[in-house]
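FAQ

Q: What does a record look like?
A: Structure on top, sequence underneath. For example:
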């Protein structure tokens, strides 16, 4: 028997050393997912990278590419993101005026569709797309920069969304992104999160494997190994 976390930990590439991304990805081989923040300097106050970088990174890892599109407009870039190697594509409820269609398009492109929700947006905004999403991403900081402090106010939203997922009867991943570290991780998991996105808490440590284990914490189950 081996221990495997029941919580998905997805290192956020935004906190990595961009001058040696291949090495940085190799250092987080324990993680099954890699979170990729695409930012345009318009929807959020920062610019990161786009499909060409995602495509270049794809050859360096078998990890699932969890791409978070913080861009506006978003729909024109869904196909390019999928072709670059994304496994999951998450759009924001705040920047997808036709969210239902956007999520359908993502699935039609062969990717798992996700929707992100900013701190000021209520959980009810997702009530009409619960049948379409595979991933819900709760932002526990205002999007655009890494290294921000966790917003305690979002714990109630996580609980509400966890209950909405339960009532939907679907296996929807409830992810949390922003200020996640070994201190905040147990709190969001207790509230119902099943996936943790973390940047500096992983890439800011010398031993990345240990950092990922610290976030997985006590949330483990016994599985055949």
């Amino acid at each position: 028997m081996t221990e495997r976390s029941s919580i998905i930990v997805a290192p956020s590439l935004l906190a990595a050393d961009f001058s040696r991304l291949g090495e940085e990805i190799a250092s987080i081989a324990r993680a099954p997912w890699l979170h990729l923040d695409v930012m345009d300097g318009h929807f959020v106050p920062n610019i990161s990278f786009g499909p060409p970088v995602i495509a270049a990174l794809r050859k360096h890892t078998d990890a699932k590419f969890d791409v978070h599109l913080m861009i506006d407009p978003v729909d024109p870039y869904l196909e390019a993101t999928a072709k670059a190697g994304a496994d999951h594509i998450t759009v924001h409820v705040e920047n997808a005026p036709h969210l239902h269609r956007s999520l359908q398009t993502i699935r039609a492109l062969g990717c798992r569709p996700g929707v992100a929700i900013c701190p000021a947006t209520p959980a009810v905004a997702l009530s009409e797309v619960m049948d379409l999403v595979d991933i819900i991403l709760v932002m526990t900081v205002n999007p655009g920069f890494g290294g921000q402090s966790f917003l305690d106010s979002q714990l109630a939203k996580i609980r509400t969304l966890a209950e909405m997922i339960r009532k939907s009867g679907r296996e929807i991943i409830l992810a949390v992104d922003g200020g996640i570290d070994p201190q905040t991780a147990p709190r969001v998991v207790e509230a119902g999160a099943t996936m943790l996105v973390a940047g500096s808490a992983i890439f800011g440590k010398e031993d990345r494997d240990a950092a990922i284990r610290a976030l997985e914490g006590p949330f483990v189950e016994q599985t055949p190994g």
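Q: Is there anything notable about this one?
A: Residues 22 and 86 are 17 Å apart (CA to CA).
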